[in-house]
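User: Structure tokens for both sequences below?

Assistant:
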Amino acid sequence: MTVLQIVTDACDEMGLDKPQSVTHSQNPQTRQLFALLRRLCVDLCRQYDWQQLSERATVNTSVVTQSITMTAGSNVVQASNPSVIDGDFVVQADGIPSHTEVLHVNGNNVTLSAPASKSGSVSARFCKYRYALPEGFLRMYDNTLWQSGNLQRGYGGVGPMGWQEQLFSLAGTNLVLRYRIRHGKLEIYPVPSENGRLSYEYLSNRFVMAGGERLSSIQNDDDEILFDGSLLVLGLMYMFRQANGLDASTELGAFQALLEKLKTQDNPAPALSLSGQGYGGTLVSPFNIPDGSWDA
């Protein structure tokens, strides 16, 4: 349903005057309905892993090789082409400690998170380990990250304690690709050592369809909302009555009942059989164990 259809249907059911426009109206009541509809949609995005909001992202990894000049005891090096380097890279070179990150770039000077252990000019590899998240990103689906070049699966998200263990443990945990979301970016470890591609699935907040494009905000009256129309009308009626001090218990009950029904229908689970017979297969098998983290 379009934005205008949702608001006018809600107004019809509540006995209110129907607006001719919603997104550009200056009428206080219509502006209130529009604000409540926007908040309802944003809240619904976080309510459940709606299949309509599931998207796939691809990330092109970046590795840059260039010469650096370093001085023992200093964490500032001079790079031959620092314009392609930023704070999302780590540096790998003889005389540079492991897990050394780029902190700042100023001209040819690159400030690192640890000082060099020797002086001289060497060839260094700057490997990007932190990547921007796609527009509309809410959260990544656990364990959906794959590195396409070597078909290696990534595991995560990893918590702070597990991340530190990866970086500094001698137990060889860095043999497995892992990831976490930190400071609004995707961090990968071990750092990809060559240019390639990563792919993962995520839940977005792009609940609007306008001109064939998904958006995270409503722009016009004819924008299509991806959620069920009846759910949006009920939710808008409940929120409007509550905001104006009216009894909204009937609308709330109907909204909650429909919401739960739509959740079960949105992505139904397979039928399971204790006896191993029937279409669902056995109760526990590689085909019906739910995705997720099984860390203790």
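Moving on to the next sequence.
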Amino acid sequence: MRLTPWRKQAELSREPRGIRRLRDEMDHLFDSFFGATRLSDWSSPETAGGWTPEIEVVEGDKNITVRAEVPGLDPKDIEVSVTGNRLTLSGEKKEEREEKKGGYYLSERRYGSFFRSIELPAGTKPDAVTAEYDKGVLTLRIGKAEGTPIQRIPVKTAGAATASPKKTS
């Protein structure tokens, strides 16, 4: 599973790069052995018949940013959709290369489709999604609903509410 859990930006920057890579590799190992878990919510390349782009999810104060590595794709080959609270990324990579020089001929073809689906947390605005593609990275920004205050509920000790009984002589 390469999906980064919902975390604040400050928490992600404190995690050493080597630890994050080790965690990602362990998640991928478990997913390839047991299949995609309920928490990972993505199809592995072996089951989907394609490839899986790396995805990073970061929660900020005003929006949630999702970055997907999709090098070599044309933006018109990427589809982004939101259904309810589910963000879906899909697309297809088609790359052909032919080279004829002197006494040799080189022909390479790479292709494959991908599909990633992410459940958005409560408090997001699915109608406020922007998508931007730059140098192989697709960046999505999903707005968060404002005015959803956190209601703090005090926790009382059970013994503090009752008074101790008086002794009678």
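User: Anything stand out in the second?

Assistant: Residues 63 and 118 are 15 Å apart (CA to CA).
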